[in-house]
């Protein structure tokens, strides 16, 4: 890649990070073209050519994604408050845009989200981000740590990954009721299958929260478990941690064969250290752990 192209992509990436950081502000073409240091007369065409959707569409989808997370995973804010944060002047305008894009009213989505239309509606946003937000990892990004064993409460997800958001929603509701806040009890995901197995029914991941307490939860499908201690290769990922597959592939395909190490008999897993929408997406942090012998 030429230096000029690298610089161009860096400027476009700066725009996406600015949008994430300022979703509550007036994100007009003039201000965003200034962030990228591009001519305001050409910026909208440059943005659409790069990302496959207009600036207006990108900003709207980013706001609706945050709003949908707030509706589904938190109950501290009213629909009106969420509408105001999404820069809609009135709740009815927010409701129309939400229904048009995501197929449900905000209230209906809060009560019973339909995740398949949600995934389809946000696919252009995820595709746009994937164009510039993929990191290239090197051996300097990987450290080897001795990790202590961690007792965890586990909610298993087995089956189509399209239904994973519903499992996450139940997991969050359960841990809230149990008083296991992420600031005091760490959050882990243990991957027991590929991200996209040949059959969606074979997808398998454990949602875990670290705790030594004996907790009720059988009715919610909660069981006790343990992440074993030992040596691990650790790769820290900052920003857009929805898809950690590229980082996992780097550990398996590139780092492990060249390291001379051997993988231990336990799945790769991650610890999620910060969460969207509590922080902007480009500031989310996760660490991947590849257990070693």
Question: Could you describe the 3D structure shown?
Answer:
There is one protein chain. This protein has 293 residues and is of the alpha+beta class. The chain has ten helices and eight strands. The chain has an eight-stranded antiparallel β-sheet, covered by helices on one side. The model has no long low-confidence stretch (mean pLDDT 91).
Instruction: Estimate what percentage of residues fall within beta strands.
Output: 15-25%
Structural class: alpha+beta
Shape: globular
Low-confidence stretches: none
Q: Tell me the number of strands.
A: 8
User: Strand order, biggest sheet?
Assistant: 1-6-8-7-3-4-2-5
Biggest β-sheet: count, sense, barrel? 8 strands, antiparallel
How many separate helices? Answer: 10
What share of the residues lie within helices? Answer: 40-55%
Whole-number average pLDDT?
91
| Distance from first to last alpha carbon | 38 Å
**What value does the Rg take, in angstroms?**
20 Å
What pattern of helices and strands is seen along the backbone?
HHHHHHHHEEHEEEEHEE
């Amino acid at each position: 890649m030429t230096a000029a192209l690298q610089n161009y992509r860096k400027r476009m990436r700066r725009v996406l990070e600015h949008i994430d950081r300022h979703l509550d502000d007036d994100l007009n073409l003039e201000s965003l073209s200034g962030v990228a240091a591009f001519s305001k007369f050409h910026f909208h065409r440059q943005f659409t050519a790069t990302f496959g959707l207009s600036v207006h569409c990108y900003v709207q989808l980013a706001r609706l994604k945050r709003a949908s997370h707030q509706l589904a995973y938190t109950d501290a804010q009213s629909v009106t408050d969420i509408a105001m944060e999404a820069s809609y002047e009135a709740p009815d305008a927010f409701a129309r845009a939400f229904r048009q894009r995501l197929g449900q009213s905000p209230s209906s989505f809060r009560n019973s989200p339909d995740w398949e239309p949600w995934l389809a509606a946000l696919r252009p946003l995820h595709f746009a981000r994937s164009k510039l937000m993929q990191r290239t990892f090197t051996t300097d990004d990987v450290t080897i740590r001795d990790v202590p064993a961690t007792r965890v409460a586990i909610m298993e997800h087995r089956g189509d990954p399209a239904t994973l958001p519903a499992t996450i929603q139940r997991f969050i509701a359960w841990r809230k009721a149990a008083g296991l806040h992420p600031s005091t009890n760490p959050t882990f995901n243990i991957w027991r299958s590929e991200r996209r197995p040949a059959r969606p029914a074979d997808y398998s991941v454990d949602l875990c929260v670290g705790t030594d307490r004996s907790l009720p939860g059988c009715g919610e499908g909660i069981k006790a478990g343990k992440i074993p201690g030992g040596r691990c290769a650790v790769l820290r990922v900052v920003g857009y941690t929805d898809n950690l597959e590229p980082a996992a592939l780097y550990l398996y395909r590139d780092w492990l064969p060249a390291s001379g190490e051997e993988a231990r008999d336990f799945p790769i897993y991650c610890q999620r250290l910060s969460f969207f929408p509590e922080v902007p997406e480009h500031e989310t942090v996760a660490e991947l752990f590849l257990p070693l012998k």
